[in-house]
Amino acid sequence: MAFSDIKKSISSVFEERVSSPFYGSFLFSWAVWNWKIIYLTVFVSSDLIEPHNKVDYIVNNYFNWYRLLLFPFFSSVFLVTAVPWFSNLLFKVSLYYEEKRRIEKEKRDSKKRLSIEESVVVKNELFEQVEKHQKQTSSKDKEIDNLKTQMEDLIGQRALLNSQITILNDDRKKFKILYAVYGKDDQIGDVTSQTSLLLEQSKKFQVTNTDLNGDPASGIYKDFLVLYQTGGKIIPLRAKEHDFIELKDDILMVKQSEISRSIQNSANYNRLVGIFPGFWKLSYSGDISDQEEIEINSNGQYWARMSTNQPFVHLFNIEDIFIDESSGLLEFTKVAIQPHDTRRLKNHLRIMEKLTRYEGTEDGNQRQVVYQAIA
Asked: Phi first, then psi: what are they for 81, rounded to 5°?
């Protein structure tokens, strides 16, 4: 075992002994019972006890096991046990008499009579407190009454708002024309009132200058736009001149007339011819690998020939035309005209180079097609 460990062990034992209340009491008791030994050792000169030295003198005169061990031991036990118990008892007695003194003082103070001047002061203070309390109570009562009035007003306003909201919700669910215009580009006219009147009278009308009371864009094929509400929703509707507008179950529907269909087809054919001017070479790949020369005229007719030695033959009519040059999309359907030919060949094309080259698919992606302009 190292010396530091031995030193630490001895130090811990010494600290335990010093900090124990018994050992402290024992040392105090020993000093009281053997005070002569301490006095002789510290204050008496060796010359006074010659021929003896101090140790021999103490052993011969004061060496008594009762005083050295027994009496200090019992004194220590008394100090450690009886003295704290007696101290606690005295503390409890002190608290008891302190409480009795406080109660007696309160009794005497309660029976003490006030002087006339003191009574007057107390009464005035009491009166002021009562008056102040009454004023505060009255003020609070007024505040409560005002709050009750405000609450009643708010309840009334809430009921009114709920009623108005109910009316608005019911009104939103009803069919109503919100806005309607008729014309083309910046040449348009507001026909909201006329549209509402026509639908109220017959539930149906035709988009014409006559029915809509005027021609805002003379000589131009016009558009009709209407916004209406029904079932809590706002719905837009677009139609063309000569289309029929019909109201059924609070829903507006557009039905194309023969005139509008013819005009629309003509417009679409003109746009398609603008995209496919002149002659083109069509190349197939996929389920069919071939090529042909084609021409699409302003009547929506698709003409084709397999070689330059053959004449052009009218094979298809063009329908379902969709052109979106901003997105580079071009779609149309080739409808066979032969009696026993029921083919409807849908073309989905990308405008690779306008007026020059279009690529895409035909007939449900069964084949790849390329349209290349012939110079």
From this structure: -105, -60
Residue that is written with structure tokens 């103070």 in the block: 109
Q: What is the pLDDT of residue 334?
A: 94
pLDDT single digits (tens) 211-270: 888 888 887 888 899 999 988 888 998 988 889 999 998 889 998 888 887 777 778 888
Pairing of strands 291-296, 301-305: antiparallel
CA distance linking residue 198 with residue 216, whole number of Å? 19
Regarding predicted confidence, which is higher, 344 or 44? 344
- pLDDT tens per residue, range 105-130: 887 776 666 567 777 777 788 888 88
User: Could you tell me the end-to-end alpha-carbon distance of the chain, in angstroms, rounded to an integer?
Assistant: 112
The tokens describing 84, both together, are 């704290």
Would you state the structure tokens that stand for residue 258, as one six-digit string?
Answer: 């023969």
Token code pair at residue 316: 């298809």
Q: Pick the closest to residue 183 from 239, 266, 265, 237 (CA basis).
A: 239
333 and 314 Cβ atoms separated by less than 8 Å: no
**Do residues 25 and 80 make contact, with C-beta atoms less than 8 angstroms apart?**
yes
Using CA atoms of 49, 54, 60, 62 in order, give the dihedral in degrees to the nearest 10.
Answer: 110
Give CA separation, 41 vs 52, 61, 65, in Å.
13, 13, 19
Angle subtended at Cα 302 by Cα 219 and Cα 267, rounded to the nearest 5 degrees: 15
**190 Cα distance to chain centroid:** 43
What are the tens digits of pLDDT across the range 69-90?
677 777 777 777 767 787 787 7
Separation of alpha carbons 359 and 349, rounded Å: 5
> Are 205 and 198 in contact, with CB atoms under 8 Å apart?
yes
Q: Say if CB 248 and CB 268 are below 8 A apart.
A: no
Q: Give the residue among 238, 299, 309 at the shortest CA–CA distance from 267.
A: 299
| 55 three-class SS | helix
Choose among 257, 259, 282, 258: nearest CA to 332.
282
